[in-house]
Amino acid sequence: DGASVAKQLAEAMEALVVPMMSGYDAVFIPATTTGKNIAPRIAAKLDVMQLSDITDVIDTDTFERPIYAGNAILTVKSSDAKKVITVRGTAFEAAGEDGSASVEAANAPAGPFKSEFVSEQMVKSDRPELAGAKRVVSGGRALGSKEEFDRLIVPLADKLEAAVGASRAAVDAGYAPNDY
């Protein structure tokens, strides 16, 4: 607990985790937007290779992860003494609540840090979330404009009760917001 780590900014989380690593061989971080922001910084400070998006643990040094949009599985072996690993959230069964792992208290780093949390805006949508949607209607740069994206993609997604997706190129061109 502490104000400096409340919003899980990478600098503060790295300052919290790295000193604790002397007593551990690995840190497992969810492969979320936040986790993918924090893990590289921790790996760099520890001077180790980050293992990303793993879906299986073969042994203490060997892991599997998807490549080519999930069409192939890569087996990765790390010889680093410390491991910084992001884990795909749906890859493992949820742990039971009757475990006996100990909880170690840590003091939040004091800072100041170069980055700081400024504000947060919550966006409410009646559409399903993109990450968990059963159906997604997506558009790309070929639509040509924000107006065409809104005219074709959004109504179709509404009819299908689908999430709206957009390619990186469509987002960069301003056709769709970054949260699609």
Please summarize what this structure is.
By secondary structure, the protein is an alpha/beta fold. The chain has 4 helices and 8 strands; from the N terminus they run αβαββββββαβα. Helices cover 25% and strands 22% of the residues.
Report on the structure:
The chain is α/β, with parallel strands linked by helices and 180 residues long. It has a 3-stranded parallel sheet, with helices on one face. A 3-stranded antiparallel sheet has the order 3-4-5, with no helix packed on it. The mean pLDDT is 90. Strand 4 (62-67) and strand 5 form a beta hairpin. It has helices at residues 10-20, 33-46, 146-160, 168-172, and strands at residues 26-30, 50-54, 56-59, 62-67, 72-77, 83-87, 136-139, 163-166. It has 4 helices and 8 strands, in the order αβαββββββαβα. It has 2 domains: 3-87, HUPs (Rossmann fold, 3-Layer(aba) Sandwich); 130-172, no CATH class. The radius of gyration is 20 Å and the shape is globular. Helix content is 25%, strand content 22%.
